[in-house]
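Recap from last week: sequence in, structure out.
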Amino acid sequence: MKAIWIITFVIITFSQLESQELRGLKPAKSLNAGRLGTTRALIIGVSDYKDSLITDLQYAHRDAEEFAKYLHSKEGYGVDLDNIILLTNEQASGGRVMMSLSWLLDMSKEGDQVIIYFAGHGDVESKLLNSSGYLLLWDSPNRSYFLNALSVSILHDILNTLSVNNKARVLFISDACHSGTLAGNGISGTSLTAQNMMNLFRNQMMVLSCQPDELSIEGKQWGNGRGLFSYHFVDGLKGFANTDQDSIILLKELERYVQDKVAIDAQKVNHTQTPVVHGNINQLISYVDPKFTKLDPQQKPYEIPAFNNIGSRSVIRWELENQDTSVQRIYKEFQYALDKKEFLDASDGRMWADTLYKQLESKVKEGVFINSVKNQYVAELTDDANSELIEILNDNSSSLLKAKLRKSRRINYNKIQLYRAKELIGSEHFYLKYIQARIYLFEGLILFYENSNNKNIKEGNGIIKYFNQSLELEPNAPFTYFFMMVTHALKFGNKDSTIYYCEKSISNSNNWIVPYCFLASYLCEKFDDSKLARHYVSLIESKANTNLLVKNVIALVLFYENQLTESLKLFTELSQQQPNNFMHQQNLGIINYKLKNKEQAEINFLEAVKIDSSAFNAYYFIGLIHYDKKLYNEAIFYANKSIEINSNFLSGLKLLGVLNLELRELDLSELYLKRVLSLNEKEKSTFYYLSLVCLLRENKEEFFRYFDLALKNGYSNINNINNSRELNLIRNDKDFIDLLNKYNLK
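Predicted structure tokens:
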């Protein structure tokens, strides 16, 4: 049978208690008795990842399910179902995992026991020494784990809080599987994550399924589809590790059993896998169901019956049964609103989730039920807000522009969601600083989206202020550095700062190529440095030489190098590979326009707006083509379409100014042209066209003022000056001739 190659490491940590106190790890009849308190478990298993760039596993979710079955069974730990949260695949989102950890922190008291189990990918995406690695959740993005994965260092803090502050007994099992394509492959993310886990938990009891430089395996041959280590680990806990038949399992017995079984089975598929144990090997792990003393060691372990009444809402489900019918009805509507993502508003006149939550809160003032509902609500609010960031950061060079066109309204809604989440969790919650960091990020993004892409230092300072506040709370956030890079390129026009923040972004997310792609584009478009852009293209190719985004960047660099035929060829290929990407058609249109193929260019632009009706630049170029044909009214129609979508679009505003000048609508022309200058006070050609408006009004003083400003700011289009009908009115004027001579224009 075919085995899937993965790396797995399992860590078991107990608070530093005497071994005789750890006899709480036994079946339900003893576990929940007297001083031993309550056992609660959070069990996570992710095989099917949302991001297609993260290689799926086969059986991580089954390993989690089997461990949950074992914990609940009377033959195992006998944990009540209302004290188990099982999150598998899409249930294991970033928000749900964080708020489930919050549930453990809120509920656990001295003498209670906490069990946390994780099965899925673990990885490191950065070479930085302070990067401890991540456990990848269902919605973790391959491009930036930092955005929505469970940091090993945060988990370490939570485990320490449970042990030291709550004085709970903690059992942590991590089955973090590495296989296929992950962001950290190029920097040994597999071994670094395992090594970092060992370092962080070096003072606690720890079991790893293999050495940091080894891989673990999963396959159909174990338990009809399980991870090799997890399969034998649970079997050992069931009782097969109890080789001396004394009805108790010590860590050294579990170690010996798992090492032997894993090594033998791994060898059968020509693989080496060596579990490792640190800690007190005489530590008691569990008691054994007496029936195991009667089993032949070679016999197949008995099966624990399957059950279906456990899942992400299990705690709420069990608590809800104790509420009156009005609470049950409101909660049903609340859950429906969450499923529809109608948090703070709703369609069809229905009440939204926030209103329904407040109704529940007014009826159930305190207790497990309302606290669990609150955690559920916060999880959904934060997941939805994070999903917007993930979409923006998607590997698509048009995604940032599309985000701007998606209106700042959506981003503002995300910000309000996070403010509501912040209000719900309170000022002492461990998740607060992460939510606040995202709030600052969204505040900056709102300013960024509400303003134009044009250079404006005042606007840039306002945006950067929020990004810096976000970085104070999340100093290694690659996506925040990415937006810092974009802001320095567009708002400040600062080449060195643009490069600096790009490198900061990459250093915190080694395999994320989008910052380099944007940088290469900016170096060409904003800083006229295609040579340096070529350097970054080579870096991009070394990371992802078959990526469509790489081809897109190369095509853009060729365009700015004026290698239009080669650029046209690549964009044609891209349009065939991604027929629903309006940017490819738009770029084809721009190239054809420059090549004087205006009929084909118009076809490309019309196709672009057909694919995406918010493609404002395409509307502008259609207007420009009609202007070239002297079809001024039609040109005005399309130019207006462009600024209806993006009211700060300089080129559209300027075109409307020029068109109204041609139609001698001087007031309208002045209005549009001055709007351009309010967005970019040094836009040289706008000064030129304003001077013509003043000339037609016979205002020579204002004409000379604007014409001088145009030439002073670098306007040097001698063909326009020589062929202008308007300038014929003053061409022989001595002052006009002197002004041209002043700037060496004749």
